[in-house]
Amino acid sequence: WGRRWVGILGCGKSGYLDDCTCDVETIDRFNNYKLFPRLQKLLESDYFRYYKVNLKRPCPFWNDIHQCGRRDCAVKPCHSDEVPDGIKSASYKYSEEANLIEECEQAERLGAVDESLSEETQKAVLQWTKHDDSSDSFCEVDDIQSPDAEYVDLLLNPERYTGYKGPDAWKIWNVIYEENCFKPQTIKRPLNPLASGQGDFISKLLLLSGLCVEKRAFYRLISGLHASINVHLSARYLLQAKFFNIYNFNCILIFIIHENVSFPLHFDENSFFAGDKKEAYKLKEDFRLHFRNISRIMDCVGCFKCRLWGKLQTQGLGTALKILFSEKLIANMPESGPSYEFHLTRQEIVSLFNAFGRISTSVKELENFRNLLQNIH
Fold this sequence. Notes:
This protein has 13 helices and two strands. By secondary structure, the protein is mostly helical.
């Protein structure tokens, strides 16, 4: 799988990318020499290396999951004394403050409606409130307060090839492509690019031009994630366990943000959902629900290490989509003090930067593959 993806999507690709104002060469240079080194350094910090996840959630779609028994598929969770106190206390403090704020806001809403509401009705209203709070979420996230949720050190459980393959692994990607990707009427199933020959796959990509820009972007988001994962599994993965102080952490984070802002060829999201308001709203909701469903499929992965990195990267992409489609809420955020309409949890921030780091690593590894091929020839 990985070799085929690298051959199709990486080594021979150059020039401008469809639906973008940027070209491959600019992205390569910007990523490989500016972003990649700093991102790797940042992701080694305690804040980004510890991720809380529930790997015991049952698959919501089918029961016949064959758990991978290979040693490489296992995930080693952290003991409580291995997680820095600052990480644990920050999560507790955040959840405590968030719950307090939420309770106050709920009390105000309930009081404004009717103080004589029965206890049963009040509970129903609170459930509606929780539903409203998740209406802009692109992922079904783990309940980090669950006793089954555990901290995992991502540096000690790196994404790599584990031997997880065969029908069970194929089933995951087939369900993602066949049941959750948009397609034009002219394209027959299967959509999974690995289910057919390379030539047929290229022709299908060309036929994607029959889709609107939002649906093309969705397909490329999923196929890009698929390609990125396979690049990671194909590449040599080296870890250097180096730590640095909080000053360096803040400096690197700020530098990465400024570097991203300075990139000259940003993707123009203003063309998304810009048509008829009713149709645009329905399309955005379809977009959100499709991706949310894909996040649920990650609980069906039989390899725990693959499940960990699948959940992390889908939550990271879902967080990016949440930011992308919350432009008005972000614009109305106060310059100082907390924002009650838009905020990101630590889980979302950690997954966002780690997913960014994974994609950045893929772009860097493709350069390594190209250099290897040149040396062979």
